[in-house]
Amino acid sequence: MLRQTRLLSATSSRMISTRAAAVASSSSSLGKVVRFETANAESAASGTLTKVKKPLPSSARVVICGGGIIGNSVAYHLAKLGWKDVVLLEQGKIGCLTTWHAAETKLSDYGSKVYASLEAETGWRQCGSITVARKDSERLTHIKRNAAKAAAFGIKAEIISPSEVSKLYPMMRTDDLAGALWLPEDGVATSTDLCNAFSKGAKMNGVQIHEGVEVQKVFTKNGAVSGVRTNEGDIACDVFVNCGGLWSREIGKLSEPQVNIPLHAAEHFYIVTKNLQGVHPNLPVMRDPDGYTYFREWSGGLVAGGFEPKCKPCFHDAIPKPFEFELLPDDWDHFGVLMEQILHRIPSIESVEVRNMVNGPESFTADNQYVLGETPLIRKYFVAAGMNSSGIASSAGAGKALSEWIVAGQPTMDLWAIDIRRFAPFQNNKAFLRERTLETLGLHYAIPWPKRELESGRNVRRSPLHDRLQARNASFGSKFGWERANWFAPKGVEPVNVYSFKRQNWFEHAGREALNTRNNVSVFDQTSFAKFQVQGADAERFLQRTAAGNMAVPIGKVVYTGMLNNRGGYETDVTITRTAADTYFVVSPTAQAVRDLDWMNKSILPDERVSITDVTSAYAVIVVMGPNSRTLLSRLQSPKCDSPTSENSVFASKNFPFGTSQLVDLGFTTIRATRVTYVGELGWELYVPQEMACSLFDEILAAGKDLSVALGGYYAIDSLRIEKGYRAWGAELTSEVTPIEAGLSFAVDMNKGDFVGREALVAQKKSGVSKRLVSFMVDDGAEPGDHACMWGDEAIVRDGKVVGFITSASYGYAVGKTVCMGFVKNDSGVADPAFVMGGKYQIDIAGKLYNATPTLKPAYDPTNARVNA
């Protein structure tokens, strides 16, 4: 979507930008309430200036709620795509809320081109940006990683020395710096002018814009948008777009069912100084993230603000109305932590008068990334909100992406990182949002550590085994609200992550878990899997059409496959078990519960007799993996079996082949055992009624003492699956990756008849592919301790040329090397294995190249002998 947004991401592998260029709207609108008025010559005689309102239309193809820069960008891009029957409604004035006081922006590659093309109207100025790294942090490693990726995408980026920083920014203190990232093509633009430029462009292309119109209700019919009610009448429409800014969450409540938009407002501060010596219009934007601050030129002075570690949430009870062009009270005490850092970096500010402080509310999401897309509950209801202080930067790309989604009926690119369906309903809880906002605003400038876990809003969803894992010294992480054991600390070791770009403190402990799985038997709690029951007379017909694998299988057969979009890309990656003639059990990754249920429900045809039920909370999942797993589980079967290979063992290979599922009596519990693996070893996933999970867990550990049974966490799972070359949705598998490109053609049945995505796969097979997933084993550096520490997103270099990026990486404890996966691209095609294997490969880690050996087979157990044991 947004090339530079992808590149310089605050979370590295996610599609959300760090912030770069500070931008203030206008000196007249800083620090005080401002009212904009429009004039009409016909009213001059009465002594007042008013604007005659046009009546609302009775119908429109699209109604957009919200006249900020995002709403206007969506309107502009829809009109550019030919959808001109669009009505934009703004309850106040265009650009009257967060747009006008926006103080920071980082322009994406697409956005910068759009804004530059509208230079006369937007105030776009290419001045470059500098991000400094202090000596006492690992920030330099972070910006080196960003610079390497930017350069790989053809974006000018350079790591410069403190002395070079001084030349670009003479008034800056540099004695405590280790270096900086210089982006000469970055720029700034005026926020209100950007908003007005989009508004003007939209109107020129036929969009109607109405100010002073409040949306009061969103109507639905048959699960889709049918119209809106406003204070000036009703409008029938096919599509509704919620771009309501701070009010988006409340607007979500105006429909039935209500739409969950997890946003909370927080105060955002910056100051504007009077003229400062050395400041000029082309002074680069400067960020000092270790000091939480940013700076940019404004009318001969500086705008200086930041993202303090602990913010001030506001409007917890309700957002006041009206709230147009208004600011919140100054709070110099709260601003003190930023002011201290501002004076540290630019000491001369201390002797210059501050014109004013700006304190404006902005909305933040539960994960610091904005909300985009069609809602999971109502068809044709779209949202673009929660921009986390990056609305100006992201407006062009977000407007383009959402408008294409609206027109095409599905995303035209991978938008999972910002997809509204990534949130669970509980994350719209106000208490949760307030607590989480205290943390997320401060993360804007925090180092995006690998494996970083959010600390607020925790312990919301817990497996029934949680207390048992906690008692065994588990270090928990959070996924989709679920508390999950990442690794287990031995006695005397604190189960807390110590973050670094190097090997982290859990490295050897996760390694012990991984090797125990390879050599003995390990137990994993994977209760957080999303689980669905697809049932009805047309269940097989439905899944045959929506899944790429063949669903016409016997009861008890497990099918690993994907559900694809019309482009052949993965919408989800699933295992599907036929449990009855009219019933299937679908299991997908944790974070996709809302997305996958939405995708399947919206795929049901009107004449299909099928229902889909989310049964995630009904079952705990105890996973038993390793060469001793058959022996262990055979001991627990009823009646018990002393020989795991005998005919009496349910788990004997001939009685329980790979890729099958059975109801089995274990101890005093009847469970569903499924023989699959995500770690590359013999093993079973046990689906257990939640209330029976603890007793079975205890029995498994007791029965396996002499088999060296041990607990394992998700860090071990990740290492094991990467070592084995198993793909993960959201990393190797996305909506822009096909099974052919991912090397998963075996999971597609092209002969079963038509299915979603088949036409695209047929065309791709005929034309060939230009990218292919490859595994690499990476050598350490020559110096002692110079480990090839990879976390994903590093550039793949072939014969000196960047040919792709790493999607997943981990240390492979069984093979004794760092193992990673990534797509190798070649415009002339990559079907020939000789091309893939023929080059000299290196991986760029923070600007340093490490030698890598490619393989098209798994690095571990390439013949699957252990899985099929």
Question: How does this model look, in words?
Answer:
This protein has 869 residues and is of the alpha+beta class. It has 3 domains: 320 residues, D-Amino Acid Oxidase, Chain A, domain 2, CATH 3.30.9.10; 182 residues, Gyrase A, domain 2, CATH 3.30.1360; 137 residues, Gyrase A, domain 2 (2-Layer Sandwich), CATH 3.30.1360. It contains 21 helices and 41 strands. The strands form 8 sheets. Strands 6, 7, 8, 14, 15, 16, 17, 18 and 19 form a 9-stranded mixed β-sheet that branches. Strands 2, 3, 10, 11, 12, 13, 20 and 21 form an 8-stranded mixed β-sheet that branches. Strands 32-33-34-31-25-35 form a 6-stranded mixed β-sheet, sandwiched between helices. Helix 2 packs parallel to helix 8, helix 4 packs across helix 11 and helix 14 packs across helix 19. The radius of gyration is 28 Å and the shape is globular. It comes from Capsaspora owczarzaki (strain ATCC 30864). This is Dimethylglycine dehydrogenase. InterPro entries: FAD-dep_OxRdtase, FAD/NAD-bd_sf, FAO_M, GcvT/YgfZ/DmdA, GcvT/YgfZ_C, GcvT_C, GCVT_N, Rhodanese-like_dom. Belongs to the GcvT family.
